[in-house]
Amino acid sequence: MSSNVNNFLVKYFIMKMISKSVWSILLFFLLFGCSQKQENSSVKPLISSTTGKPEMPKTIMLGTVYDVFNERYDTDEEFRSIFDRDIKLIKETGINTILPFPLGEWVGSTKTQKWGRSDYMIKGIEDNGFKFITMLVKSQHNAYFPDFMQSKAKNIFQEVNHVPSTDHDEIKFNRQEVKDALDNYIKNIIERYGNSPALLGHNIWNEPHFESMDDYTVHQFQQWLKTKYGTIDAFNKAWATTNSDWSEISPLARNTWPSSMCYIDWYLFRSWYVGQLVKWSIDVLHKYDTKHFAYASPVLNQLTSKTASLWYEDQQEIIPYEDALSFSFYPDLYYDEYKGVPMGYWKYSAVYTANRCDAGDKPYFLNEAQTNSRHGFGLSEFMTYDKIHMMTWLAFSENAKGIVYWQWQPFMRGEQAFGRGLTQTNGKLAKRGEAVKAIGAVVKKHGELLYKAQLEKPKAGILISMPGMWKTMEMCTRRDVGGASYFMHQSFEGTFKALWEKNIPVDVIRIDKEVTLESISDYKILYLPFQIMVSPKIAEILKQYVANGGWLVADAKSIIMDEHDFGYDVNPGAGLDKVFGATREDFINRRDNFNIEMTNNKYVTGVKNYKSAFYKDFLTVYKGAEVLAKFKEDGYPALVVNKYGKGLAVLSAVPLGGAYMHDLSGNADIITSLAKKANADFDIKTTNNNKIVVKLHKVDDGMLVYVINSGDKDFKGNISFDNILSKKLNHAINIIDDSNVKVDSDNKTVKFNIELAPHRTAVLLIN
Predict the structure, then answer these.
(1) How far apart are CA 697 and CA 449, in angstroms?
(2) Judging by DSSP bridges, how do beta strands 460-464 and 525-528 pair with one another?
């Protein structure tokens, strides 16, 4: 946000403080933070860092949420007895980190906090050698804004379409008393536990989300639009409106007939706004504690969710203000209770990869990992020993530096009664808990090694635009569109799935964020799966990328619009038709499949005939470009390749990734063949089984190689891959069971033989 906008908002808020509509206490601290910091510059934090930077973990965090409803226990003795029982078993599992929640209790009669049970819990954590992370702000507001405060507050719930919410989770962070309560609660926690030797960090806001259409939020939206578009004329052009002043703009004006930007901008603003609220909350924390790291923890990842829900916040709007990236992960969100189809393991990796790429050079971890059904009465997925095992080791293989299981014991009341938990209701470990115990034994012995290991940089990347995602989801209510409203999402996932199954690692690159030629120059191949919106600026960077030797693959409907929802007259647009050596003249969309014949196997091997789904573009091929495949029904080009400068561009007339998500396998072979031709893989080869996942990590003087059997059959065979260290390696130990593995290598290749049961993992330290 520009300094002019900041100054304007500060002045606006000061004026609003004396009016009846005092808004966004969180944003107040964010925007007023400069003057606040100047005032408080001489105030020393309660807990200070000696290095000027928060201290980060030094080993893998293997944790659990210990969620205690204090009201359940009639006496302190009963509470202590249960806690003593639990803490002993938690220690036996090898868990090293606990997230206790809530900390402190409110006494209604005195309207004060008492700390006896929390003190006992923290003392037990310290005495048993655990670390703990505080959970400060969460949907359960009673921890910091108890009932007697809520009863006195007016207009306490967020306003959606100017209708007050009835959901208890949707408190409006815009009241002075809420602001004071939050600040006071954080201060109290730091004063009481900030000097604990067991304190590791702070979950400042668990599952952050916010949406409201009250006057103050609308004003922030207007100023965000002003920053984005610069002039009212540029805004009117994008929105197809005739406003004369920014104050006339409303998010309720969803006139999507001429332009989709009113819809897209509201969702982009919401994500940005949550990022600003996270910034405020972390600034408040660091006012009291600069020693311990802080993070927020959204649900899943916006790129890997197919639902336009407020729970799915944009990690890239949050990570600039965090010390680490974290998220909640619940595989049963994708469980189809009617068809009985659970989330595939490739999807686990897609979620991890998206978050890993959002984190950049900061560590990331799972702050809430599902342990069982969300409640005891639904048909959602029940986590098994195998799924806990796979969820964890796949995360570590994708460079995650920790996993916290939600939660230790099942809920015993409330709307999630009998849901969650690593234990049975009697406090004994369930089978899923036994899986954590097995993992804990490895982490206890090798956690520092696992933490230091770094995933080898992928050579392939998938380009994706969030505005384009919202553009496709805009049509989800149209009956004639149906499931195709999520087709861009499916195309992204299908492209990822195809590469994952062939052990070709990939990064996810947001082209609606800052992208430079330098930032993508090391990738051998980049994919544009159904990427509708590509700006002229990004198009120019992609031209140079291909000219310099990169490979670029785009499929149906890609690059047909700019970032402001204007269609290109010639597409692929912004001059990229010259790069691909073809242009789209027309299209057909229909529910049945298109039959295609491969006529040239120069770049694609193993594919003769294939089918694709839903979308067919009519391509006109430029001189010099080659046709690799044709539609059987009319002979139109289906796949075109063009040399441009030192690189290569491939344009498909059908959606390759999206078609693969509809079980049309030939499309996956095209995706992976192009990656191998571009030398974007690590030449990972396995025998007898195509369900083996191999991930290569670098460690001091060696490699850490994850071998994960994601299938239902035993694996016994050879595995080989590129030697990323380019030196002879001759010793390997499987740190899962400390067994020796014979390995052969030269400067180019590493080979070994291994046996692995279904849903199990080997992690080989090779040096």
Answers:
(1) 11
(2) parallel
The angle, 0 to 180 degrees and rounded to 10, between the axes of the packed helices 385-397 and 345-359 is: 30
Per the CB < 8 A criterion, the answer to whether 660 and 668 are in contact is yes
Partners of 704 in the β-ladder: 697, 765
* Under 8 Å between Cβ of 144 and 189: no
pLDDT at residue 217 greater than cutoff 90: no
Query: How many alpha carbons fall within 13 Å on the CB side of residue 309?
Result: 13
The pair of structure tokens assigned to 376 is 């005891």
- Spatial distance between the Cα atoms of 14 and 19, rounded to a whole number of angstroms: 9
Beta-carbon contacts of 106 under 8 Å, excluding residues fewer than 6 positions away, are 112, 113, 142, 146, 148
Long-range contacts of 10-14 (CB under 8 A, 24+ apart): 10/35, 12/219
Enter the pTM of the model.
Answer: 0.92
Q: Which conformational region is residue 324 in: left (phi greater than 0), alpha (psi within -120 to 50 degrees), or beta? A: beta
The alpha helices in 678-716, defined as continuous H runs, are none
For residue 707, which phi and psi values (nearest 5 degrees)? -120, 115
Nearest CA to 595 out of 522, 654, 676 is that of 654
Query: 43 pLDDT band (50/70/90 cuts)?
Result: low
User: Three-state SS across 151-204?
Assistant: HHCCCCECEECCEECCCCCCECCCCHHHHHHHHHHHHHHHHHHCCCCCEEEEEE
280-318 tens-digit pLDDT:
899 999 999 999 999 999 988 877 766 655 456 899 999
Q: What is the pLDDT of residue 155?
A: 74
The tokens for 287 are: 């006012």
Q: Which amino acid is present at 702?
A: G
Q: What is the rounded distance in angstroms from the CA atom of residue 352 to the CA atom of residue 623?
A: 42
pLDDT-derived band of residue 336, with 50, 70 and 90 as boundaries?
low
Give strand pairing partners of 616: 588
Query: Residue 86 and residue 584: Cα distance in Å, rounded?
Result: 64
Bridge partners (DSSP) of residue 174 are none
Contact 429, 437 (CB under 8 A): yes
pLDDT tens digits along 644-654? 999 999 999 99
Q: Which of 262, 131, 119, 281 is nearest to 198 (CA)?
A: 131
**Greatest C-alpha distance within the chain:** 84
From CA 32, how far away is CA 287, in angstroms rounded? 14
Residues paired with 511 in a beta bridge: none
What CA–CA distances, in Å, run from 536 to 87, 445, 681, 735?
A: 58, 52, 30, 49
Task: For residue 17, give the 3-state DSSP assignment.
Answer: helix
Question: Amino acid identity, residue 409?
Answer: Q
Q: Give 20-49 as a DSSP string.
A: S----HHHHHHHTHHHHHHHTTTSPPSB--
524 and 459 in contact (C-beta within 8 Å)?
A: yes
Instruction: Choose among 629, 655, 627: nearest CA to 641.
Output: 627
